[in-house]
Amino acid sequence: MTWLAILWLGIGVACLVRESWGGRRWLASAGVGIACQLVLAALALDFDGPSVIVVIVCAALVVAYEWWHHAPPTTSRDALIGLGLIGFPTAMVLTLSGVAPEASGLISGWLRHLPFLPAGTKSAGHVLALGAAFILNLAAGNTIVRDVLVASGVSPAAQGPTGTPPVLTQPRLRGGRVLGPMERVLILGFGAGGNLAAAALVIAAKGLVRFPELSATSRSENGPRIDEVTEYFLIGSFASLLLALGCVAVTT
Questions:
Q1: Who contacts 213 (Cβ-Cβ below 8 Å, separation ≥6)?
Q2: Interatomic CA distance for residues 111 and 26, integer angstroms
Q3: Who's near 9: CB < 8 A, 6+ residues apart?
Q4: DSSP one-letter code for 117
Q5: Could you tell me the CA-to-CA distances from 113 to 46, 108, 135 in Å, in that order?
Q6: Where are the beta strands (DSSP E) in 73-126?
Q7: Crossing angle of helices 2-21/26-44, nearest 10°?
Q8: What percent helix, strand, coil does the chain show, rounded to 5?
Q9: Which tens digits make up the pLDDT trace of 91-143?
Q10: CA atoms of 224 and 143, how far apart (whole Å)
Q11: Which residues, in sequence order, are CB contacts of 188 under 8 Å at separation 6+?
Q12: What is the pLDDT, as a whole number, of residue 158?
């Protein structure tokens, strides 16, 4: 799980910096993400051969991810490649987790002396992965959801095969870039604490709160139809929820 934490931490921090500084500074945001990866690796790993290779590959993936996302994707192909740049490495690291070394060094000793740990946490590596998952679900989570929306063709930023935008050209539902991370962090926190019922309440509450806005948007003059707005909302919401729940499943 320590390798997974290094991968997620680098991408998550880089995305946070990119959103703060702007996409044109993608190389700087990638540098900050790589620096965080190196610090975590130095504190949690003994630098044997496999770990050195993994850290180098994870750093290269941060650069590739930031370069690819320095401008928002507008085609399904671009969005799918963006999803692959985090989905495929995550799957590979999870596949190799059986041979990955456990967290050691200074950070392992510090974690063992913490007076609290999430319920169901198995090891120091799982704690690191959970912390990295929280960071990943912030700005990087928004990037992942945006890629899903563009790949499915329902995003206002998406273009069809001929370069023409879809029917849904109205601005996205307000507050999504703030509410999405808050929702994912809540679900991740409840899931890590073993309280999935509370996570289900968060999901249900979001639907109830958003329903009036969905109806109002569809009734506006020259606005999109209710089915278009609903499709946009459901795909974005399910992508966001699956990301948070997937992190819960992996880290607890």
A1: 173, 174
A2: 32
A3: 33, 36, 37, 40, 131, 132, 135, 136
A4: -
A5: 20, 9, 23
A6: none
A7: 150
A8: 75, 0, 25
A9: 998 888 777 777 666 666 666 666 555 544 567 777 888 889 999 999 999 99
A10: 24
A11: 130, 133, 134, 137, 244, 247, 248
A12: 61
Q: Which two tokens stand for residue 52?
A: 């050195």
**In the numeric block, which tokens belong to residue 39?**
């610090």
Cα separation, 125 vs 121, in Å, equals 9
Domain boundaries, the chain: 2-251
Does the pLDDT at position 171 exceed 50? Answer: no
Q: How far apart are CA 150 and CA 101, in angstroms?
A: 37
pLDDT one-digit tens code per residue, 191-241: 877 777 776 777 677 666 666 555 555 555 555 566 667 778 788 888 988
CB 65 within 8 A of CB 85: yes
Task: Return the SS3 of 220.
Answer: coil
Q: How confident is the model at residue 166 (pLDDT cuts 50, 70, 90)?
A: very low
Q: CB under 8 Å to 248, separation ≥6 — which residues? A: 187, 188, 191, 192, 199
In angstroms, rounded to a whole number, what is the distance separating the alpha carbons of residues 64 and 70? 10
Torsion of CA 45, 142, 26, 160, to 10 degrees: 130
d(C-alpha 51, C-alpha 96), whole Å: 11
- Helix (H) / strand (E) containing 142: helix 141-152
Cβ atoms < 10 Å from Cβ of 214: 17
Average pLDDT value for residue range 174-188? 77
The predicted pLDDT at position 12 comes to 94
Give pLDDT tens digits for 28-41.
Answer: 899 999 999 999 88
